[in-house]
Amino acid sequence: MPEAEDPRQSDTGLIVRPVMSRKDLKRFIRLPRTLYSGRDGYVPALDMEQTDLLDPKRSPIFRHASVRYFMAWRGDVPVGRISAVVDGKALEAWNEKIGWFGALDALPEEEIVRALVDTARIWLRDQGMERMRGPVTLGYHGESGLMVSGQTEPPMIGTPWHPPELHAIVARVGLEKSQDLLTFRLDLTADLDARHIVPGALVPGTGKLGDVTVSHLSKKEITAQGEVLRTLYNDGWSGTYNFVPLQSYEMTALIGQLKPVLRPEHYVQINRGDVPAAMALVVPNIYDIAGDLGGAPSPLGWAKLGTRLLGHRFHSARVILLGVSHTVRGTILGALMPSLAIAELISRRKSLPYEFVELGWILETNTAMLNLVKRLAPEPNKVHRMYEMAIPPL
Questions:
Q1: I need a labelling partner for 288 at 20 to 30 A (CA). Which of 45, 92, 222, 303 fits?
Q2: Residue 373 domain-assigned?
Q3: Alpha-carbon distance 95 to 84, whole Å?
């Protein structure tokens, strides 16, 4: 935990101070459950999942980033939280002095949000940052964006929830919209094959795609496949908005978290000859089996969770990684790759129990992907917004 800093207190008794102890860290992790309990559409995340994301002992981002947590208090009652992050890998990738804020959760009051944002901004300024971007918790590969719409949609793994009033308050405290991240719900109905037509009706292994093959996940070779996936993912998204290369130790941690729920059908790898050219990874939605257990299940709740996990009682999933190698980007084959990956996932629905999957986050400026997805789901079911602001020097 960090050394003590002078807390900032308002005339109304609001005070913002850094997280200093393991006890405070637990409060920080659990705070959204306190703030949003009873709100329409809110379902608490598992403390275990959030601990993997936020605990310095568990989250791999702490290997290359400086992170500070702050909480807002009124008396003995916590009323908001925020993180401030200087990510060394992001600074290398962008060559710009941009720090992140994230984990922004608060009662929807302007005084609280302003105090939290100001505190994060001042800390980032003291670290030499010139701009602030977010919310991102804690890095590019965690949770991104402030939920603008979709609060009453079914909850999804890795997708932050915020009350509908919060985004208007965020705009009033000086943060400006940077990008919207769009999520689309793809219902796996019987007519999906007919609606998703690959241009030219091309099929891997036949005709013009004779040297194109599709691979599944192998649990025996999951570590090696994870490295292929990481390389493809970094290659496919290099240079795009807010992107930071996924590190090998981050992929190792991700595989460790997901291995108990992954099946061969969850991974699509499209090869051209012997060279991987595109990939997609689907992750089952933990809320399907844990949403009714609360963030901290009882012993009986954990037993139920274990039984449901063994039975793979999921009915939804999320596509979390999808990318196309630069070796085919800009070619006709490269343009086909996202369609081929989605077609392969659709074909596997007969062996997976899912009723729908969510595709996201798709940048509002990614016209090619939006044109593809909107043939299947015309409108996004969730929108998360990224913000930025300049950090004036002292």
A1: 222
A2: no
A3: 19
